[in-house]
Amino acid sequence: MQDEDEIREIQSIPTSKSAKGKGIAQEHKRGKTIGTMFMPRTTPGGQPSIKSVLQGKEAKEKVDLAVAKWMIDASIPFNAANSAYYQTMFDAACSFGAGYKAPNFYDLRGYLLTKNVVHVKNFVDSFRSTWKETKCTIMADG
């Protein structure tokens, strides 16, 4: 096995006595630069201005006030904001874009309710097979 090992000769890098290592440094300067290893510096337009940050805060507060006003008007308890679906609802609406129109009363009590009922039934059915083995079922409040 040792006879089959490949042996390679390592070639040394030629250096001139007058360069004293400067040739390697100059080659390195022409190669990769240090800038590729770090994030680029921020440009004058790279950071948001104080005015745009304050406008962003004002716009967020305007949206927050609209949500609070709707919850108060519809008598929705504030702990509804603790729902797992609360932020998901806003994320989905925002990802749709500015032209999104919310579902109306008839859509909510009609086909959207039916779709959610089917979804929950399928979810429960996925656990039914384990009920006989574990002797446990799903209990829910209301």
Automatic annotation (TrEMBL):
Region feature (Disordered): 1-49
What protein name is recorded for this chain? Answer: DUF659 domain-containing protein
